[in-house]
């Protein structure tokens, strides 16, 4: 019966790890709980399973957690959603006038967006999206379209 409690604790630790990503502490504790469950099935008493849990968790925290954190830092950050628009190019459909706040651009996927800029940008120009502010794109003028499509 004690082995089932350790498996229940293992699930609890894994759920906590999913809610707090990036720590890897609770994943190591889950590993310790798994080792304690195996020790319980092998007939080790309550004190023995607690010792296996504590030593296994400590060993995993000291070895696996730093490796996992280092691996996570090496993964490149890829923007999602509206953040992914930054750096893309768009064509000006309606001249962008900072004085009146008017202007519209068409993205490569055909989507139309209202746009703002620090300086006047004429129609049929190409712009680069800097960031999304509310429902508008903040843009700056860029070189003509490199693909040669007008």
Strand order of the largest sheet: 1-2-3-5-4
- Choose one word for the global shape: rod-shaped
Number of strands: 5
What is the structural class? alpha+beta
Give unreliable regions as ranges. Answer: none
Amount of beta strand? 15-25%
Order of helices and strands: HHHEEEEE
Distance between the termini: 73 Å
> Helicity range of the residues?
40-55%
- With helices defined by DSSP (H or I, 4 residues minimum), what is the helix count? 3
Computed CA radius of gyration, to the nearest angstrom: 28 Å
Characterize the quaternary organization of these chains.
single chain
Instruction: Give the overall average pLDDT.
Output: 87
Largest sheet: 5 strands, mixed, barrel
List keywords for this structure.
43% helix, five-stranded mixed β-barrel, 150 residues, alpha+beta, 5 strands
Brief summary of the model shown:
The protein has 150 residues and is α+β, with helices and mostly antiparallel strands. It has helices at residues 2-19, 25-41, 46-74, and strands at 89-97, 102-107, 112-116, 126-133, 136-141. The radius of gyration is 28 Å and the shape is rod-shaped.
């Amino acid at each position: 019966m004690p082995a089932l409690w350790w498996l229940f604790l293992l699930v609890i630790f894994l759920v906590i790890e999913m809610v707090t990503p990036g720590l890897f502490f609770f994943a190591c504790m889950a590993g310790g709980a798994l080792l304690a469950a195996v020790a319980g099935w092998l007939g080790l008493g309550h004190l023995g399973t607690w010792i296996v849990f504590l030593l296994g968790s400590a060993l995993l925290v000291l070895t696996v957690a730093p490796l996992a954190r280092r691996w996570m830092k090496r993964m490149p950050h890829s923007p999602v959603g509206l953040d992914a628009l930054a750096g893309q190019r768009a064509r000006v459909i309606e001249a962008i006038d900072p004085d009146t706040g008017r202007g519209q651009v068409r993205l490569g996927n055909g989507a139309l967006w209202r746009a703002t800029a620090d300086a006047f940008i004429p129609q049929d120009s190409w712009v680069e999206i800097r960031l999304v502010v509310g429902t508008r794109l903040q843009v700056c003028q860029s070189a003509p379209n490199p693909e040669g499509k007008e």
